[in-house]
Design brief:
395 residues; alpha+beta; 3-stranded antiparallel beta sheet; 17 helices; 13 strands; 40% helix
Length: 395
Amino acid sequence: MEIQEEQIIRYRMRVHHLDGKLPQEGLLEAAGACGLQNSPPGAWETALFNRLHSCTLNFLRGALYHEKTLLQAWSFRGAPVVFPAAESDVFLTALCAQQAEQPWIYTKGVSAALDVMGMPFDELLARVRQAAGYLDAHTVKSKELLDRTLAEIVQKGLPPEKQALWRSPSLYGGGGQTLGEAVVSFLLRPCSFLSLVVFGERQGPSPTFTSFQNWLGRPPVCKPEAGRRLVQKFLHSYGPADKASFLRWLGCSPPQAARLWDAVREEMDPVTVRGKTRYMLSRDIRLLQHAEKSGRRLILLGPHDPYLDVSDKDLLLKSPALQKTVWKTAANPGAVLRDGRVAGRWKTHTLKDRLELEIALFEPFSAKEQEELQVLAEEYAAFRLLRLTACKIKS
C-alpha cells in the first residue's frame, strides 16, 4: 500500500488534535496522545493552548497541581513530560529496562563515574532507589538540591573507602557538583520510571520534587499491557513509522526497543512511504487513507511540540538548512505551521508583563495571512497573561 505525503500530514494533524481544537473536556485525550514534553518549562502549556478551546493557564495548572489529573515526571528520552496521571504506567513503568537491555534511558553517560567508583550500575541504582525513599515524606526544591540530598543519603551507606571518591569533583563539570551528585543525576531517570520521583508544584523559577506516593497519595498501578500501549501511542501519533524511529523517540537501548516493538507486531500493517517500508496500527489504516483536509489553519506551535517530535523532518520542512534552524540541539524556537507543514519559526522576548514576538517566514505569506499571525501572537500573549508590545514578521 503506497501512502502519499499529504495523507500522512492530514492524518497526523488529526491524531495530534491540530486540525481543530478540542473542548476543555478533551484535556486528558490531548495530553495522553503521546505525552507533552515540558522543556523549556511551559512547553506543555503552549501545546495544550493550541489543542483546547478556552484554554487558560489557571485551568492547566489546576489540572497538574491541584486536581492532579495530570502528572509531570522524567519520561521518554529522560525529558520532563506531562501526561495523564492515570496513565503513569505507560509513560513511566513501561520505560523500565530489563536486565539484558542496559543502558537504561538517559544513563549511558554514567559509565565513566561507575569506573571511578569501581561499582556496578545495578548496585548504585539500588542505593539511589533506597535513598529516594526520602521523597515519600519530603518535597525538595530545585534539581541541584535533589541531587545533593540523595547523594548525601547514599554516601552514608557506602564503604569508607568509597566515600572519598563519592565526594570528589564531578567528571562532568557542573560548578561544584560532586561525583556522587552526578551519579544521582543520571540515576534519577530510572527512579522516575519506577515512580520514586515526580515533579511537584513549581515554585517561581524552581521545580520541586517528591515521590509518586507522596504527590498523589496512592501507589502507582501498573497494568501488564503498559508496554504495548506505549508502542500503540507512538504508532498512532507518528505512523507510518519504523522501529528505528521508535527507538529514537524513546531514547532507549536497541534490545528494549525491539522487545516493546515486537509485542505489538501482530497489530501492525506494513505500508510503503517514498519506496520504504513503514508500519501503521491496523486499526488506523482506514483513517490514514481517508483523512480529510481540514480548513486552512495557521498555528504558532511551541518549541518541542509533540507534532514536531518526528524522525521524518523533511515531511514537514524540505530544506535541510532550514531544518537546522527549527530542530536544534538546544533552545529550539517555535514553528509556524501552515497546512501541517513548517513555514517559519518564531521566538519571544519577555520583560516583566510585556511580550515581544519575532516571526521569520520561510515562504511567501499573503497580507491576510500575516494579519492572522498578528492575531495569533495577541492570543498567545493573552494566554500567557502578558501584553503584546511587538510582533515583528520577517519574510
